[in-house]
Amino acid sequence: MKRKFILDVCCGLRAFWFNKHHPNTIYLDKRTREKGFDDFRPNFCIKPDMEMDFKNLKFPDKSFKLVVMDPPHIIAKPESFRMVKYYGNLTKETWKNEIKKGFDECWRVLEDYGVLIFKWNETSIKKKEVLKVIGREPLFGHPTNSKCTTHWFTFMKGCDDEA
Known about the structure:
Layout: E1 6-8, E2 25-29, E3 50-51, E4 64-69, H1 82-87, H2 95-109, E5 110-121, H3 127-134, E6 140-141, E7 150-156, H4 159-162
Parallel strand pairs: 1-2, 1-4, 2-3, 4-5
Antiparallel strand pairs: 5-7, 6-7
């Protein structure tokens, strides 16, 4: 595992990865979907290295230098439409707890001065709300006046303690 120092906790389709099989990365998702799970895109699949829920990571504290968290961001019923099939869903009643618990788990497995990249789309929940739930200020990311709906935030463990 020494060569595996990057963790993607919600890999899904691995859509933003240039190398979808990066040798230093462990790809996690809580579900596996074989090719053909979506008739519209029959070659799409969700094949994590390990099935694991980002809210309960089975790794020791401080195991990774880089953690990528691109959690579900749509409030909808499971499998209700294509985007939910690809990326998962949240519920109105539990999203705050799920995101907070997941972020805290990612923070736990991140080594000191490690970097956490957090991706969020404002389809159902505004970035301001999700950052409030996380309870940490990013080092940098999309500016607050950005017109984009997808946002990337960068956190570094230890920097917030020294600020």
